[in-house]
From TrEMBL:
Protein name: Response regulator
Upper taxonomic lineage: Bacteria, Pseudomonadati, Bacteroidota, Cytophagia, Cytophagales
PROSITE patterns: RESPONSE_REGULATORY
Source species: Dyadobacter sediminis
A Gene Ontology biological process term: phosphorelay signal transduction system
Alphabetized UniProt keyword annotations: Phosphoprotein
Annotated positions of the 4-aspartylphosphate modification: 63
Domain Response regulatory intervals: 6-133
Length: 135
């Protein structure tokens, strides 16, 4: 089975991070998964690795509601860095939101593939994988 090289999970919820770690392992779709507690630590990692695309993610699972830098603020910062990033990165928002405004806002952001409501399932992960063109 083909796998995604690197996945970043940006979420402050410890229980969710534990669950997603198990789901990712069970689905066996990624070589490496890194976890960030907020958007700022992830943006800092982007900034540090702009010249090293192998250290950047292929897939980001991004929560919306986090301290320090939330998902929307992360996306604003990411959009500013995007011209310097030399690889395609797929971003899924993963949130417990049921607010239609969040869905509409997510659809309006070109770098966001989709907003998925938590909890993420193995089926969701497999659907994400099928959207990747892996050789």
């Amino acid at each position: 089975m083909n796998r995604i090289n690197t996945t970043w999970v940006i979420d402050d919820d410890e229980i969710y991070r534990f669950a997603i770690k198990l789901i990712m392992k069970r689905a066996d779709i990624t070589e490496k998964t890194l976890f960030f507690h907020n958007g700022k630590t992830a943006i800092d990692c982007f900034t540090e690795n702009l010249q090293n695309p192998d250290e950047l993610p292929d897939l980001i699972l991004l929560d919306l509601n986090m301290p320090v830098l939330d998902g929307w603020q992360f996306l604003d910062a990411y959009e500013k860095l995007k011209p310097q990033i030399s690889k395609n990165i797929t971003i899924y928002l993963v949130s417990s939101t049921i607010d239609e405004q969040d869905y509409n806002r997510a659809k309006a952001i070109s770098c966001v593939t989709e907003l998925i409501v938590k909890p993420l399932t193995v089926k969701d992960i497999q659907r994400i994988l099928s959207a990747f063109n892996l050789d």
